[in-house]
Amino acid sequence: MAFETSEIGAAAGVLRAGGLVAFPTETVYGLGANAEDPAAVARVFRTKGRPPSHPLIVHLGDADHLGEWAADITKTARVLAEHFWPGPLTLVLRRGRRVPPEATGGLETVAVRVPDHPVALALLSAFGGGVAAPSANRFGSVSPTTADHVRAELGDAVDFVLDGGPCDVGVESTIVDVTGEVPGILRPGGVAREALEAALGRPLAVPESSPVRVPGQHPSHYAPRARVVLVEPENVVAEAELAQGLGHRVGVLLPPAFAGARVEAHAVVAVPAASAEYARGLYVFLRDFDRRGCDLIVASLPAEEGLGLAIANRLRRAAGPRDPG
Ligand code: TXA
Ligand code: MG
User: Fold this and answer.
1) Between the CA of residue 189 and those of 8, 232, 304, 310, what are the distances in Å?
2) What is 227-318's CATH superfamily?
3) What is the pLDDT of residues 274-287, one digit of tens each?
4) Homologous superfamily assigned to 2-200
5) How many whole angstroms separate alpha carbon 86 and alpha carbon 188?
6) Which pLDDT belongs to residue 217?
7) What is the pLDDT of residues 103-117, one digit of tens each?
8) How many angstroms separate the alpha carbon of residue 139 from the centre of ligand 2?
9) Which atom of ligand 1 lies at the shortest distance from residue 30's CA?
10) Atom of ligand 1 nearest to the CA of 217
11) Are 236 and 252 in contact (CB under 8 A)?
């Protein structure tokens, strides 16, 4: 990628000066601030419209200084960090001395990850410290997977946007809580549960079966503007046509088994059969339905294996109850 070193230097300077930098990662774009600057971190929350009680992920350029950002690093944490960093895995650990409480919503734990993207790594290395970054979208909406998504959603509220092209993974990182005896997945994401279990040699609890531990995991997260309705794959076409016939502007995520079907609807996307490809496109498809004015999206859940687990999780949340207004 032809990427200007001077641009990275300028972005690192913005972080040092307390500004906000949107940057690409392999999962989604992040809205970054110096993790050690409470005022800059506060601006991230304001810009996103996110309640300050919802903790941010601290991004590091490598795992060498993890001990300054997290404490009580367990064997499990080390195994996962070694296997999957840099990569789409976030570890929840006890908070280390460099992490101000503002970045963790006052929690005694901190979420940390080393992203696998050349632009993110160049920025983190030039900056030198930790970058606290949520996904670069407004609270509750779909994460951005291109720099254009970020500009469209946050505009002038961001001081600097690094454009690294479309994100390769397309859904957020997998979050694993490694603070206790038994590790557990808090959010399925870019690293498949099967890969984590293979690395650890033990099964991991799935989020649907574990209670909500922290704020920031509302069912309505990751939602497009249009209402999302989930039905069985064989009912997608009929449900979509029924709703379209009732006057809705329907967007359809057509399951692979029905890829050739003709559908009377406003917008139709035949979803890729390979889950990695589906994950890469998911938020693009949802944003596209919004852009085209759909008010209802009809979809079905993919098999919950590999990245299918993360896709199903995001679709369920998108279909979940909304806050009134
Ligand atoms: O792929 C990703 O993870 C992207 C990129 C930019 O790295 N980031 C991202 O951040 O998705 P965000 O803020 O949109 O989601 C972070 C999630 C939130 O749901 C938050 O509740 C959870 O991480 N989280 C953060 N700190 C936590 C903690 N100490 N304990 C439990 N969950 C935590
Ligand atoms: Mg987010």
Assistant:
1) 27, 23, 12, 5
2) Threonylcarbamoyl-AMP synthase, C-terminal domain (3.40.50.11030)
3) 999 999 999 999 99
4) DHBP synthase (3.90.870.10)
5) 17
6) 52
7) 999 999 999 999 999
8) 7
9) 6
10) 19
11) yes
